[in-house]
Every structure is written in structure tokens, then in C-alpha cells.
# Entry
Amino acid sequence: MIQDTIKTYNVYTSRTFDAPIDVVWKAWSDGNEVMKWWGPAGFTSPSAKMDFREGGTSLVCMRAPKEFGGMDMYNTWTYTKIIPKERIEFTLNFSDKDGNIFDPAQMGMPSGIPKGVPHVITFKKIGDKTEMSITEFGYKDEQTMQMSKAGLEQCLDKMATSLRG
# Structure
């Protein structure tokens, strides 16, 4: 039997924040904090409706800058595992403003973006600082994976700024 294997690409990044683990954890679990950093450079997040619990689904919005059309784009984060201040596992999906999930290709996004993107975020206390690692799984090509990594790095730059107060 011949088995077709489809190569996928994963995004991995790690950051050490000059903030205690409680503060970095809250950046993921509190909607007001998520709105400070969600979206790449130039994007804003006008809403983040959080249902932060295993089995819960949060609905987060990022708004493109005017020069990119100013449209709102929504994602759901459906949590499969939460270990407080250690690990968050969720699947990110593109959705409408009501949380109805759709294929990213329907939005004109690159075909390399999977319909659901599993995420694993881990937190590690290092003295007064926090090391956070993020892995996103399942991109269909290297170009799309690199695009997602660039956007994630920009989000984390914004998170670092927001954590400084």
C-alpha cells in the first residue's frame, strides 16, 4: 500500500519577556490584554470576547489599517487544553463576526493556510521573567509558514510593548 504523505510546515518561536508569568498569562487569557497586541504591526484589535476554558471558544478581531482597506478579520480560538501558567492549546480558525468558521481560501487568503491551525503556547518562569514558546502547526507551504511567522513575531513585539506598561 502506498501512503500519500503531505509535508506540512510549522511555525516555532520563543520569547523571554521582562514580566512575571502571571502578567504574560493574562496577556492570553484576558480580552482587554489581548486587544493590546493581537494583529501584526499597524493592525488593531477592537474586540476580544474571551471564553478562556477547556472547550471554550474565544472570538478575536483584528482590524487592518486604512491603507490595507480597514477591514475587520475574525478568528476563533477553541481551547483543547489549559494548564494554568504552563500551557495553552487551541485551534485557530478564520470566522465571521458571529464566530461562524470558514475556510481561509473563501476570504482570499493564501491556499497554504489550513482551515484550522493548532497552536501550543508554553510558559516557563525564569526568575522575574517569563519564557513563552509558541508552535503553530500544519501550514501547507513554506511561504505561508514564513508569512505567519512574520505576523506572529510582530504580534509578540506588540505584546512585549504592552507588558512594559
